[in-house]
């Protein structure tokens, strides 16, 4: 019956208790599985599906059979829906700026003459890449489309042009978003977003609930130590985090066919740090919040900048300096790079290090705050 | 008067919440094996005092020892030997009786936990409910579970905050029998209550109001010190009599007890003079022993002054 500084038996009893409560709390349990699924569907399909029939303006400065052929081919394609035939540079500039079209395809003057001469004239595709996911596939499609369309016209003496890299060169200008994120970025990124959202909310609730229901009063009269309470709240949710990750990895592989270049073992290993960092945030919040509602609100306050400034929503390099500074302090920013680096680029542990230590630092700071703020009394 | 060891010995405990001084210089001495009653109106500061004793709140002033350890700095040593029952049910509603007991036993590092849980459940006759969720227990059984969780680590001191609120009379009697049984084994119990019959079952008691200790001692001592003289009246129109007695010099309380009326006051002579004109048929007057209830009402109405 000694009250030592740290008792594994007490910690284990805390963990078991949390699991039993988790199992009995259907709603929270549902949320742990439901949130990742919901986000996968929303971000993975609704927002990030391969969009088709995107509004397109065409600027044709010469009237020729070739130009008409290109236009016709675009109109029958899945990706483009020609809404405007523009007359001037100024007009297309405005259409793009106002977001009325996603693409502008320009066929320059003297297109036909240069084509016939075999000079590989350029077709310019300007894309509004603020929604990069919307752009990716259409850009690839255009090259094939144009060259196939012209193939039929290139008969007789022009047949020779069919050989080689194609008669026309398609130049792509990604406007507003030079980084040009593609959908492969989103699904791995979701892992970080889902973990941030659920881990912080769940732990902040788990501790605040004890205070709200009065069970904290009983717990504090026992010899249990702050570290034991804290770890007892952390460990069960680390497991929950892993379950969520597994769900997303499976979805990435089988639903979204995201390439998996790197090591999953490494991914799960580095995720431990990220999960722990978020759990510490939750616990820190719970030491401040008076009730469960406040805990949820505070979690949201953390979640918003995380999702907006981490590079998940907007390309990180496209953000102003101040936003990048805030973003760099958030664990999600680094975790996104870790996940993308491992899954898409096949990074190893050495390349992960620059992103790992900021997360570790963040976690240590949070843990210190939480332990400092955790009160052993109820005043 | 008692040679037993002093278990709680605190002087001048003070607790403030913002501008309010909720406990204002309370001193208590509780000896081993005592059932110590803690009484006072709502908001008097009973819960706050008990919480300071078990280390849940840090006192803003005062000093003393609990189980031989400093109340302010020694809470880590005190906690393992105290069984605290909060006023509000504070075990886990979403755990079963057994899971709750098991958890609390683990928190206290009770050796041979399974056996300890089984024994405690048996002792409090909780066995039929072992697999029930605490949420689904009735008030009386919740109280039993809470008591069981206080006892599982064999504490030396029980701090029970209104343990019998909302419990039926039979269960209350059983509860008090159990408490006396435990104190006979050497445990000490400090129990807050609003019930007079319970107060009378305490070896000693303290009465606080607005954070101040107004009376302390055995039931007899407390009654005697208040120096009230009490008359019981039966027969005749007692409503009318009440109306006419109220406000007369020396008449401090006129309380109906079923078919009789208790009239009391501290100035026996003045009281005697005031009731003289009414000592005629059909009223029958009889001087009786003052009960604790009259003492507390007298204390509560502020006429008790300093103890
Ligand atoms: N955490 C707190 N913050 C502010 N005020 C408090 C706090 N806890 C108690 N109080 C106030 O202290 C006073 C004494 O409260 P306490 O709970 O000790 O009374 P009590 O004697 O136990 O009353 P009851 O018989 O109703 O349980 C009350 O006025 C209460 O409002
Ligand atoms: Mg109280």
Describe the structure.
The complex is a heterodimer of chains A (379) and B (307). Chain A has 379 residues and is an alpha/beta fold. In chain A, strands 2-1-3-4-5 form a five-stranded mixed beta sheet, sandwiched between helices. Chain A contains 14 helices and five strands. By secondary structure, chain B is of the alpha/beta class. Chain B folds into two domains: 6-223, 3-Layer(aba) Sandwich (Rossmann fold); 228-289, ACT domain (Alpha-Beta Plaits, 2-Layer Sandwich), CATH 3.30.70.260. In chain B, strand 7, helix 6 (169-184) and strand 8 form a beta-alpha-beta unit. In chain B, helix 3 (97-107) packs across helix 4. Chains A and B meet through helix 1 and helix 8 of A and helix 2 and helix 3 of B. The complex binds adenosine-5'-triphosphate (ATP) and magnesium ion (MG). Adenosine-5'-triphosphate (ATP) is lined by residues 17, 22, 40, 42-48, 87 of chain B.
The average pLDDT of chain A is 81
Largest interface: A-B, 30 and 36 residues
Mean pLDDT figure of chain B? 91
Radius of gyration of chain A: 27 Å
Q: Terminal Cα separation of chain A, in Å?
A: 27 Å
Q: How far is the N terminus from the C terminus of chain B?
A: 19 Å
Beta strands of chain A, count: 5
Q: Give the strand tally of chain B.
A: 14
Strand content of chain B: 25-35%
Q: What low-confidence regions of chain A span 5 or more consecutive residues with pLDDT below 50?
A: 177-181
Strand proportion of chain A, as a percent range, falls in: 5-15%
Highest CATH level, the class of the largest domain in chain B: Alpha Beta
Q: What is the domain tally of chain B?
A: 2
CATH superfamily of the largest domain in chain B: P-loop containing nucleotide triphosphate hydrolases
Which blocks of ≥5 consecutive residues of chain B have pLDDT under 50? 303-307
Shape designation of chain B: globular
The profile of the biggest β sheet of chain A is:
5 strands, mixed
Quote the CATH topology of the largest domain in chain B. Rossmann fold
